[in-house]
């Protein structure tokens, strides 16, 4: 399904995509090189949020609404994974 979006200048969408790409690369670096496990979990959560933002931006660029469904799926999986990891760390300390 497609929908009409308000007209945004092309350069705004392009700059937004590049900014998100740089943020995704920096977040992935923190996931790999994080000094502690909590830093890695937070960076992984940020990576999921940036991926959702990229999906929303792709919806604006293409007008294809299915990218929003993908963003919602990423949000659900990310939330469940973050809660599970924190609960695991909480039990591990006991």
Description:
It is a multi-pass membrane protein. The protein is elongated, with a radius of gyration of 16 Å. By secondary structure, the chain is an all-alpha fold. Helix 1 packs antiparallel against helix 2 (37-62). It has helices at residues 10-33, 37-62, 66-93.
**Rg calculated over all Cα atoms:** 16 Å
Helices, by number, come to 3
Name the average pLDDT.
Answer: 90
Work out the strand percent: under 5%
Q: Are there runs of 5+ residues with pLDDT below 50, and where?
A: none
Counting helices, strands and paired strands, the structural category is mainly alpha
Q: Write down the overall geometry.
A: elongated
Secondary structure tally: strands = 0
Helix content: over 70%
Compressed to H and E, one letter per element, the order equals: HHH
Span from first to last CA?
Answer: 50 Å
Largest sheet: none
InterPro entries: MrpF/PhaF-like
Main location: membrane
Protein name: Monovalent cation/H+ antiporter complex subunit F
Keywords: Antiport, Cell membrane, Ion transport, Membrane, Transmembrane, Transmembrane helix, Transport
Can you describe this structure in just a few lines?
With 94 residues, the chain is an all-alpha fold. It contains three helices and no strands.
Topology at a glance:
Layout: H1 10-33, H2 37-62, H3 66-93
Helix pairs in contact: 1-2, 2-3
